[in-house]
Amino acid sequence: MKKLFRKIAPGLFAILLSTGAAAEKFVRVNQVGYLINAPKCAQVAGMDAYRFEVKNAQTEEVVYKGTLPEGKRWNQSREMTQYADFSDFTTPGTYFVEVNGERSYPFEIGDASILDEFSKWTIKAFYLWRSSTAIEPQYATFKGINFARAMGHPDDEVLIHTSAVSETRKAESVISSPKGWYDAGDYNKYVVNAGITLHHLYLAYEMHEDYFKKKRLNIPESDNALPDLLDEIKWETDWLFTMQDPQDGGVYHKLTTKRFCDINTQPADDKQERYVVTKSTSAALNFAAEMAITARVFKAYDEMYAQAALKAAKRAWEWAQENPYIYYYNPSDVRTGSYGDSDFSDEFFWAAAELFITTGEKKFYEKLDFFRLFETPQWNSCNSLALMSMVWHLDELPEFADKQIIKRKFLTLSESLYNTYKYSAGKLALKNFIWGCNGEIATNGSILGLAYRITQEAKYKEAMAHQFNYLLGMNPTDYCFISGFGSKYPKHLHDRRSTSDGIEEPLPGYICGGANPNQTSDCGKSNYPSLAPARCYLDEPCSYSTNEIAINWSAPLVLLTTMMINTFE
Fold it and tell me: Which of 341, 347, 440, 548 is catalytic?
């Protein structure tokens, strides 16, 4: 069969690849495309080969030859891996890599334009996530497929849950809390997870302002004066304003139904009552950080909006100072995501940092204790979000700030990630495969990219590029982990909109959680193709542990993609 496959005409070969009919691949590549000046490698697994060839995808002409280094065992994938490095091949075109008769999926080499659609739709994934509005066909057509849908969850009549009552807001009283993004594969909206999400999107904008001033996404607001990325962000921040109690400045933890709806339910068909649920310290601090960034970014476009955001941020900060230990637990009648946390020191650190950057006020700087652990940020581990923001704004900080310690702490984190990458047989700046590891990989790639921008040390941009290549197909699952892109991508996301829309193709532009050996009970352990950590991935809706989507995983992908385009242009 393999010999027959290798003799198939190039055109039919491409068709078979696009339909997923090809045999399992052992030569894995970035299926979307390599930028001309970026590192280019193919992962070769289990072959102990000596040579590789890069061939033109149309003519099968050999355009590049190279030798393979000795293989190394990657314990995470339980494979011997080698890397075919063709970084010095820079001729634009469409190619595949062949090793001992085994072919990779086709890929492009080109300038930044080869990532235009990819970049656009990884941001437009947030448009498709919008609640309280219809998704219109003129903005939601991808490769000829219309992903429009009716409005769901207007949220103009949201109930105050018994856990969230105050003097002026009694149980079952009604408030309006429209807009915002659905959080993941469900239809609820969470203040805490909005925090890390907005940080990454805002940092992408702050680092590449000129780029985003020109980038058009084809969303309903594209004709206004605001850059499209900020228009999309504003859909979320408009909602966040409504989550603050105007009386005391506290912030509700989430807007939710009491139960998740069935996975085959469209947004417009979910008629459950929706509630804002108890205030929490973590929600207030995430809100304070989010709104502090909003204030400084929107100042150039809408002074009143910026002032309102800063006022809201300070009120939330003050509430958290007065209520430093309000932990979140789901009330007994609520069974949706909790985003609970038991340590708020990192949230205090991040909120103080963002307020300090925005205001320059010494009282916020004095709250910063740098003797703490800095690692890959997660929604419940925010220390490094503060570092990323402060190191980017380092030159703008007041003289009383210890800029050396900020830079040193950030570069210590960056060097740790670089060394993990350097000694990984999988070229991955990741120690363990966990729930949502693809989001962590994108975040680590972004930290490495930021380290390059700060230091101009080439090793960091090399490591960044390989995190990007991993996500787009150079990995042991042989999937490009972003829906709608590459030859082999997730088609059965754990996402209610995609599962219930009657369309065979998935909603485009979403990065799934990725390989995770720790929760295989969701689909049954025997259904997973491998229990090797790096290969434990299943493209089925039941696999919420590997195939769900989430805003906090998509945002670092936007940041990483933007860095790639602007670093290797």
Answer: 548
Structure tokens at 304: 């009143």
553 forms beta bridges with none
Is 153 a catalytic site residue?
no
Distance in angstroms (rounded) separating the CA atoms of residues 443 and 555: 9
Task: Assess contact for 393 and 357: CB atoms under 8 A.
Answer: yes
| pLDDT at site 525 | 87
Round to whole Å and give the CA distance between 160 and 247. Answer: 14
The first and second tokens of residue 182, run together, are 């659905």
Q: Which of 184, 200, 281, 284 shows the shortest CA–CA distance to 497?
A: 184
User: Helix axis angle, 458-471 relative to 437-455, nearest 10°?
Assistant: 160
- Out of 153, 236, 494, 501, which one is annotated catalytic? 494
Q: Residue 530: is its pLDDT beyond 80?
A: yes
Q: Where are the alpha helices (DSSP H) in 98-180?
A: 116-128
Reply yes or no on whether the pLDDT at 283 is more than 50.
Answer: yes
Bridge partner list, 181: 130
Give the whole-angstrom CA distance, residue 338 versus residue 219.
Answer: 31
Q: Which of 79, 186, 236, 478 is catalytic?
A: 186
- The secondary structure of 511-522 as a DSSP string is BB----TT-GGG
Spot the catalytic one: 108, 228, 495, 539.
Answer: 539
pLDDT at 569: 84
**CB-CB contact of 126 with 551 (8 Å):** yes
| Of 511, 499, 486, nearest in space to 143 by CA | 486
CA 235 to chain centre: 18
**Can 548 be counted among the known catalytic residues?**
yes
Beta bridge partners, 62, equal 55
Could you confirm whether 366 is annotated as catalytic? Answer: no
Is 539 annotated as catalytic?
Answer: yes
Do residues 105 and 93 touch, judged by C-beta distance below 8 A?
no
Its pTM surpasses 0.90? yes
CA–CA separation, 141 vs 147, rounded Å? 6
For residue 286 the two structure tokens come to: 């995430």
What phi and psi values does residue 363 have, to the nearest 5 degrees? -60, -30
DSSP state of 25: P
Q: Report the Cα 311 to chain-centroid distance in Å.
A: 29
In contact, 476 and 79? CB cutoff 8 Å: yes
Tell me the per-residue pLDDT of 378-436, one tens digit each, with 9 for 90 and over: 999 999 999 999 999 999 999 999 999 999 999 999 999 999 999 999 999 999 999 99
In the β-sheet with 174-175, what is the strand arrangement from edge to edge?
174-175, 158-160, 275-279, 252-256, 189-190
Please state, in angstroms and rounded to a whole number, the distance separating the CA atoms of residues 458 and 468.
16
Contact 508, 142 (CB under 8 A): yes
